[in-house]
Amino acid sequence: MKTVLAFGDSLTWGYDPETMLRHAFFDRWPNVVAKALGHKVRVISEGLNGRTTAFDDHMVPAERNGAKILPTLLASHQPLDVLVIMLGTNDLKTHTGGGRVFESRQGLERLVEIAQCFPYQRGYVPPKILLVAPPPFTATMEPDFSLLFGHAVDESLHFRSAVTKVAEEYELAMFDAGEVCETSSLDGVHLDAENTRRLGEALIQPIARLLGLEDDAGAPR
């Protein structure tokens, strides 16, 4: 059996901008991928609301710094075949990553270095990595999210170029979530059920390709 670790924030956890709770299990994108790939693949969903690439948030009870928790996850879930990283949204908060995609790119590079250089159990190799650029923000009238992310609506348009740059530098696979889904105007940063399902459907083929599960026509098998 192949193993995929989906490492992300609330977009991976499945935060519903309408209810402010969690999307139904099979609406969350990691579970859409798991259902499509079937019993051959185990997809581990490791999403946490507010998670950053490599920045501390001292105002919450859970550890949100992705660079601090990733080594533990790599150790506990090894051996891994594919690591999917979709982070960066929360780096654009001014009190974490400073509000710029530039810092988010640096944090993403740190995560890649951790995954590639981690001392895996003897006999195991580092997983293949798929970097997913978060979708750009949408302007919102929701007061709290407007205060938290409103300054970065234009800045979020640079996610694609920043993640592409990291993928090219480390010769990794890359996917732009903004090509297939858009954030909800209810809060400007999260995905409704339709859009998170759409993201999962779009990621099936890239993940299957990294796992070597495509047929001759390029479809998952």
Task: Please give a handful of descriptors for the protein shown.
alpha/beta, SGNH/GDSL hydrolase family protein, SGNH_hydro_sf, SGNH_hydro, 221 residues, hydrolase activity, Rossmann fold
Helicity range: 25-40%
Proportion of residues in extended strands:
5-15%
Rg: 16 Å
Write out the CATH superfamily name: SGNH hydrolase
Tell me the number of strands: 5
Q: What name does the CATH topology carry? A: Rossmann fold
Query: What's the number of helices?
Result: 7
Provide a brief overview of the structure:
By secondary structure, this protein is of the alpha/beta class. The chain is built from 7 helices and 5 strands; from the N terminus they run βααβαβαβααβα. A 5-stranded parallel beta sheet has the order 2-1-3-4-5, with helices on both faces.
Overview of the structural elements:
- With 221 residues, this protein is of the alpha/beta class.
- It has a single domain, classed as Rossmann fold (3-Layer(aba) Sandwich), CATH 3.40.50.
- Helices cover 36% and strands 13% of the residues.
- The protein is built from 7 helices and 5 strands, in the order βααβαβαβααβα.
- The chain has a 5-stranded parallel beta sheet, with helices on both faces.
- Helix 2 (29-37) crosses helix 7, helix 3 (66-77) packs parallel to helix 4 (101-117) and helix 4 packs parallel to helix 6.
- The longest helix has 19 residues, at 193-211.
- The protein is globular.
- The mean pLDDT is 95.
- Residues 6-191 form the SGNH hydrolase-type esterase domain.
- Keywords: Hydrolase.
- InterPro entries: SGNH_hydro, SGNH_hydro_sf.
- This is SGNH/GDSL hydrolase family protein.
